[in-house]
């Protein structure tokens, strides 16, 4: 029998999308008072969450590298004006629209998996529709329960991201119903021209820098998964006086920068 070794990703535990999903989640779930079968099922969900988030990181990094390369070239050679200054050749991010659409699809799938963390323990299948997730939490735990409040607090943000994705699936030439991207463009003044980075936005809305938005969406989706797992921890842990605490940024291990850890309860703030 030949042992087969295969690399599945270019991203390891030093990537927050990896460290703060599967690895962090497995450590937190050690303290759940659940069966081994439930725990293994939940780990499968975390693997899928990690996979979709890593795809988002890949797309963001591809665009970031192309943007950096363009600025380096313009910085060394200047903008390529010709026809007596009446035209300019600008760099581009190839397939920017397709990259943006793929990014949003992976985000939507990652959001689905954050809600999917509930199913192994409560046998309720949930997805990216957080209004349904919040309604289930209210029925299960009550309107004032911290789990319910946590899900409801995320509902507007999730709706916004899913709306952007839906504008890809079902585009219409109406405000808010079509995703637009704009590649590099000329900005500044005639005397001091500059290169403006790629942007995106829904039809009828002000476009925003795509790289900054992608970075924020990745971080927020990671936080969303952490919040759901934290609330599950407080529902499913045993009677031990345990809490989840946030690790200060400066104390996180760069090799695996998890953000949350389980510790004994005290008077210190908890997550």
Number of domains: 1
Biggest pleated sheet: 3 strands, antiparallel
Q: What is the helical fraction, as a range of percent?
A: 40-55%
Mean pLDDT: 93
Q: What fraction of the residues are assigned to beta strands by DSSP?
A: 5-15%
- In what order do the strands lie side by side in the largest sheet? 3-6-7
Low-confidence stretches: none
What is the string of helix and strand elements?
HHEEHHHHEEEEEHEE
- The structural class is alpha+beta
First-to-last CA distance: 48 Å
Principal-axis shape: elongated
How many helices? The count is 7
What is the β-strand count? 9
Whole-angstrom Rg: 22 Å
What does this structure look like?
The chain has seven helices and nine strands; from the N terminus they run ααββααααβββββαββ. The mean pLDDT is 93. Helix 3 packs parallel to helix 7 (210-236). The protein has one domain (16-264). By secondary structure, it is of the alpha+beta class. Helices cover 53% and strands 13% of the residues. The longest helix has 42 residues, at 36-77.
């Amino acid at each position: 029998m030949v042992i087969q070794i295969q690399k599945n990703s270019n991203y390891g535990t030093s990537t927050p999308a990896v460290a703060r999903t599967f690895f962090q989640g497995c450590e937190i779930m050690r303290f759940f008072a659940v069966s081994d079968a439930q725990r293994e099922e939940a780990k499968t969900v975390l693997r899928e969450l990690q996979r979709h988030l890593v795809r988002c990181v890949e797309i963001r990094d591809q665009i970031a590298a192309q943007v950096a390369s363009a600025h380096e070239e313009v910085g060394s050679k200047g903008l390529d004006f010709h026809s007596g200054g009446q035209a300019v050749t600008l760099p581009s991010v190839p397939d920017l629209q397709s990259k943006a659409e793929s990014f949003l699809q992976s985000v939507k799938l990652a959001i689905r998996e954050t809600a999917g963390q509930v199913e192994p323990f409560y046998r309720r299948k949930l997805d990216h529709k957080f209004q349904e997730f919040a309604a289930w939490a209210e029925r299960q735990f009550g309107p004032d329960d911290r789990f319910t409040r946590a899900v409801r607090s995320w509902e507007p943000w999730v709706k916004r991201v899913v709306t952007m994705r839906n504008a890809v699936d079902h585009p219409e030439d109406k405000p808010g119903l079509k995703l637009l991207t704009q590649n590099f463009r000329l900005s500044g003044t005639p005397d001091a021209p500059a290169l403006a980075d790629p942007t995106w936005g829904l039809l009828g809305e002000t476009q925003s820098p795509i790289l900054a938005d992608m970075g924020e969406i990745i971080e927020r989706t990671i936080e969303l998964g952490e919040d759901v797992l934290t609330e599950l921890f407080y529902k499913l842990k045993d009677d031990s006086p345990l809490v989840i605490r946030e690790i200060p940024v400066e104390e996180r291990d760069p090799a695996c920068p998890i953000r949350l850890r389980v510790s004994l309860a005290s008077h210190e703030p908890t997550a």
